[in-house]
Amino acid sequence: MASRPPSGKPPDGRPEGLPDVAMLAEMASALYSMGLEQLGDRAAEKAVPTPGPAFPTGVQSVPLGAPTLPAMPSPARLPSTPRAPAEMSPSSPYYFMGEASAWRPPADTQPGAQGLVGRDDPTGLGDSDYPGYYFIHERHRPAAPVEPSGFDVDAVRQDFPILAERVNGHQLVWFDNAATTQKPQAVIDRLVWFYTHENSNIHRAAHELAARATDAFEAARAKVAAFLGAPGPDNIVFVRGATEAINLVAQSWGRANIGAGDEIVISHLEHHANIVPWQQLAAEKGAKLRVVPVDDSGQIILAAYRELVNERTRLVAMAHVSNALGTIVPVREVVEVARAAGACVLIDGAQSVAHERVNVTTLDPDFYVFSGHKVFGPTGIGALYGKAEVLESMPPWQGGGSMIRDVTLDKSTFQAPPARFEAGTGNIADAIGLGAALDYLQRIGLDNVARYEHDLLRYATEHLLRVPGLRLIGTAPAKASVLSFVLSGHTPEQVGKALNREGIAVRAGHHCAHPILRRYGLEATVRSSLAMYNTRGEVDQLVDALRRLATGRPAANLLAR
Question: Any idea which residues carry the catalytic annotation?
Answer without folding.
Answer: 512
